[in-house]
Amino acid sequence: MLDDAAAYCSEKGLPLLIHLGGKKENGDYQYLPERHPDLEIIYAHAGVPHYQKLWTYAKTKDNVFFDLSSPYLDEPLRVAAMKATGPSKCFYGTDGPFGYPGTDNKYDHGAILGEIYGFSISTNEKEQILGKNFAALAGIK
Q: In this structure, are residues 90 and 66 in contact, taking their beta carbons and an 8 Å threshold?
């Protein structure tokens, strides 16, 4: 059902964010990259629910990326996604307005951000995850 949207995004040079769902029988993560090899796809929440299988698959695809958002991911899972795919395939995301409540009962964007700042990677790699990767993908200078 996403073929038209995928074709449009591919033609316009726009990335497409995909949420595969929560059940392992949901979401054929190979369908869009195989049918639309020029489409840049960002899988939400580190590729939930397929994780390692999708991370391994993504290593062979230049057009497959991951956002590291969601309170359902913990720090070890974010680190595992980043290590499995490399910092160049990962994006900081907030998943707002869902997630970590702040002390003011509003959304706390700092929770996921703090985890990424704590990754044992170079400053440049953190900057890639925190914005440079998406800017490059979206053609933002």
A: yes
CB proximity list for 60: less than 8 A, separation 6 or greater? none
More confident residue, 64 or 97: 64
The string of DSSP codes covering 71-113 is TTS-HHHHHHHHHHH-GGGEE----TTSS-B-TTSSB-THHHH
Q: Provide the 3-class DSSP secondary structure of residue 140.
A: coil
User: In the chain, what percentage of residues exceed pLDDT 70?
Assistant: 96
CB contact at 8 A, 82 and 58: no
How many whole angstroms separate alpha carbon 16 and alpha carbon 44? Answer: 10
Helix (H) or strand (E) holding 34: helix 31-35
Q: Please give the domain boundaries of the chain with CATH numbers for all domains.
A: 3-23+30-138 (3.20.20.140)
Span between the terminal Cα atoms of the chain, in Å: 32
Q: The tokens 């796809």 sit on which residue?
A: 41
Q: What pLDDT is attached to residue 102?
A: 72
